[in-house]
Specification:
Blueprint: H1 2-10, H2 21-45, H3 55-84, H4 91-109, H5 116-140, H6 150-167, H7 176-202
Helix pairs in contact: 2-3, 3-4, 3-5, 3-6, 3-7, 4-5, 5-6, 6-7
Length: 203
């Protein structure tokens, strides 16, 4: 991994784009603070956002599909090279992924001002591309054992879509999207912890 980072730096890639955890963990931390600050202002002032989501739904959505998705992307794209012995996603492809994530956050803030299809496409482009990249890398590395790791991320994308559909007033059971998303996150954490914790305790 350090050799891959050195090669990326030699090609003129900024350090922040040599490993996925760097931009995505930073984005997760910054967005968690920004979204929480916006939520506090909304609670204190009664203000509303130009979003299809009501304030509570927006807060739930951004914690799950903004903050958590960035953390998941940072972990997954950093772990996959260790699993497959392939070079990490870095440079422009990584910058594109970060840009898609950020675009989704901005669109969700003002989704009431844009067509419904555009807000959905903008927000879902990140999980769709993330799943495609992760699956490609795992399959190319023939690391079949870890291919199921993309399933919870796929479920997160489906849950995200359900929240958008509910916000638009379509026939979706209330709260199904965020409950499904939360379940996917819990499963993902459980699977990762089940693999990492034993390696720590054995060592």
């Amino acid at each position: 991994m350090s050799a891959a980072a050195s090669r990326a730096r030699a090609r003129g890639t900024p350090a922040v784009l040599t490993q996925a955890f760097r931009p995505f963990f930073l984005a997760a931390g910054l967005w968690s603070m920004a979204a929480l600050a916006i939520w506090i202002v909304i609670l204190a002032t009664g203000a509303t956002l130009p979003s299809r989501f009501d304030p509570l739904s927006w807060h739930i959505h951004e914690m799950l599909f903004g903050f958590v998705m960035a953390a998941v992307a940072g972990f997954l794209l950093t772990a996959i090279p260790n699993w497959t012995r392939r070079l990490p996603v870095s440079g422009r492809p990584l910058a594109l992924l970060v840009g898609l994530w950020l675009f989704g956050r901005l669109i969700c803030l003002v989704s009431a001002l844009v067509p419904f299809w555009l807000s959905v496409a903008a927000d879902l482009s990140f999980p769709v591309i993330l799943v495609a990249v992760a699956a490609r890398e795992i399959i190319a590395g023939r690391n079949w054992r870890n291919l199921p790791m993309v399933v919870p991320v796929t479920v997160l994308g489906i849950a995200n879509l359900l929240m958008h559909l509910e916000a638009e007033g379509l026939a979706v059971p209330a709260g199904l999207g965020w409950r499904l998303g939360l379940a996917a996150v819990i499963i993902l954490i459980s699977v990762v912890a089940g693999r990492i914790v034993p390696s720590f305790t054995r060592n």
